[in-house]
């Protein structure tokens, strides 16, 4: 493909090149580019083309019910709780465990909130959980303030599969992230 420089319509920060097949490439001074062919625009999908403030890193963590029960028992033993109080607390633990959608706290910007929809799939194509929430509603984790919980999902039934599927969708940006959560 041979690129020819075109002097028409060139701005100070943009450069327009025309390929031998008639398609147009607009080169921006910040390293991004746009490719136009037959009046259709094809986006620049390189990771370096995504602005830093638009990048969003989400992690998903799973804790099974046994680990949660051990943690609660150790915490309540340290507080010298009676055995009856401990048993009452252990009854409230969801049988399937907990799924945490987490993000570094520094990525949450007060003026730039995102509305995200969270899905969890066990077996099949129907989600066992779905909820929409804003990232501004995230709460810092008890362990460290550098990580915030976007969504904490109790699983009231034991998972049927060995791997849960999780999905986070941003309708406004038309982006989605998919995760495989191994059940231990």
Describe this structure in words.
The structure is a single chain. The chain has 184 residues and is mainly beta. Helix content is 12%, strand content 41%. It has two helices and 13 strands. It has helices at residues 65-78, 83-91, and strands spanning 3-5, 14-19, 24-28, 33-37, 40-42, 59-63, 97-104, 115-121, 129-134, 139-140, 147-155, 163-170, 175-182. The strands form three sheets. The protein has a five-stranded antiparallel sheet with strand order 1-2-3-4-5, with no helix packed on it. The chain has a four-stranded antiparallel sheet with strand order 6-7-11-10. Strand 1 (3-5) and strand 2 form a beta hairpin.
């Amino acid at each position: 493909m041979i690129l020819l420089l075109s002097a028409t319509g060139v701005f100070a920060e943009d450069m327009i090149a025309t390929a031998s097949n008639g398609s147009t490439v607009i080169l921006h001074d910040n390293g991004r580019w746009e490719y136009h062919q037959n009046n259709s625009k094809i986006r620049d999908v390189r990771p370096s083309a995504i602005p830093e403030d638009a990048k969003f890193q989400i992690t998903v963590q799973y804790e099974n019910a046994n680990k949660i029960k051990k943690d609660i028992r150790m915490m309540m033993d340290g507080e010298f709780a009676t055995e009856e109080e401990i048993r009452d607390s252990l009854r409230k633990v969801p049988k399937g465990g907990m799924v945490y959608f987490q993000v570094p706290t520094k990525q949450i910007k007060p003026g730039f909130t995102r509305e995200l929809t969270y899905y969890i799939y066990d077996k099949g194509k129907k989600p066992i959980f779905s909820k929409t929430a804003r990232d501004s509603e995230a709460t810092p984790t008890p362990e460290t303030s550098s990580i915030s919980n976007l969504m904490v999902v109790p699983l009231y039934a034991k998972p049927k599969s060995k791997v849960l599927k999780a999905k986070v969708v941003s309708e406004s940006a038309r982006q989605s992230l998919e995760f495989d959560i191994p059940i231990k």
